[in-house]
Amino acid sequence: VVAGDVDELDPRRPLHRQPQFFSPKPAVMTLSNSFVQRKISFDMSKSLRVLITGAARGIGMATAQVLANRGHSVVATDVSALSGLEGIQAHVLDVTSDDSVARCLEEVGPLDAIVNNAAKSGGGPVEGYPLDRFRQMFETNTLGALRVIQAVLPAWRKRGSGVIVNVSSVNGRVSSPLRAAYSASKFALEALTESL
To answer: Which of 10, 27, 86, 101 could be a cystine partner for 163, CB 3.0 to 4.6 Å?
Structure first.
């Protein structure tokens, strides 16, 4: 969405790739500051059912609005109740909770794509950065995406299609002072995405 390539995604079209450990392989993209790290071309002539995490504001909300305006069935989620999203189904989803993810996915039904956008940010010097805040950042930014991916993949493998979009950051490639926790969580998300 950020780079304007979302209209090219269609999980129903078979992918032609090198053999992997599992086949067929769902499509995976990582968005890093409006730059698509891995672009996979699809034909989006049909409407997709897309779940977006962290859709209360920013990239998540913009993604939900753009996809809905282009005729896709959008499920916008956030840790708190969402409102004011016309034509978009809203659900509460805490990506740090197995129960919340399972409950949300059961309520929304089958999906064609997920956009893992939920994230926490924060900064401070490494020497005094509280470990519990470091863990919270990883729990949301990295393990939250993994939790949603693991919840949808079995059905997608059986069906033979699905699209995963992981929203990352330039801090997932280049760390900066006072951003160790955030950068580490986004570096991990980048590695997770490349390993899918």
So the answer is: 27
**Which residue has tokens 């999203």?**
85
Residue burial 84-122, b: 16+ Cβ < 10 Å; e: rest: ebeebbbbebbbbeeebbeebbeebeebbbbbbbbbbee
State yes or no: is 182 an active-site residue.
yes
Closest CA to 11 of 147, 154, 111: 111
pLDDT of residue 139: 98
Specify burial of residue 66 (Cβ count, 10 A radius: 0-12, 13-18, 19+): middle
Mean pLDDT value of segment 159-163: 95
Q: In terms of residues, how long is the chain?
A: 196
Query: Could you tell me the pLDDT band of residue 83, with boundaries at 50, 70 and 90?
Result: confident
